[in-house]
Design brief:
Number of domains: 1
Radius of gyration: 16 Å
Strand order of the largest sheet: 1-3-2
Distance between the termini: 40 Å
Helix content: 40-55%
Largest sheet: 3 strands, antiparallel
Shape: elongated
Number of helices: 4
Order of helices and strands: EHHEEHH
Length: 113
């Protein structure tokens, strides 16, 4: 079981967006890497397995929709993030996303300026 955060955008296929596509893809990759770095920094460390299990993944459903994903692959990541009946939550993914949200938006806004 993994915990993940997705960053996704969708656009129409016209001349403007075809030129913008490589720039958007770079901004998406940079934002996904930055989010993963922040998530790793916030992950609670006992053995380091959880922190080391945090990965990024880039994917596209079709030509018009691409997304970056930050995934904690440790099987217990969900229990750490949300807690259990016996253990309190120690969120690391949601706070990282909340902290990085404006930075992610600025990565894309900078392309428009």
């Amino acid at each position: 079981m993994s915990t993940n955060v997705n960053i996704r955008w969708k656009w129409m296929d016209d001349k403007f967006f075809r030129k913008l596509d490589p720039l958007l893809e770079n901004a998406l990759e940079m934002s996904t890497r930055e989010l993963a770095d922040d998530t790793r920094a916030r992950a609670p460390v006992k053995s380091g397995k959880l922190r080391n299990s945090i990965e990024t993944e880039m994917d596209e459903t079709d030509r018009h929709e691409k997304f970056g994903r930050v995934i904690a692959m440790a099987p217990y990541a969900l229990f750490v993030e949300y807690g259990t009946r016996y253990r309190s939550a120690k969120p690391f993914m949601r706070p990282a996303f909340a902290h990085m949200w404006h930075k992610i938006l600025n990565n894309f806004k900078d392309l428009i300026k």
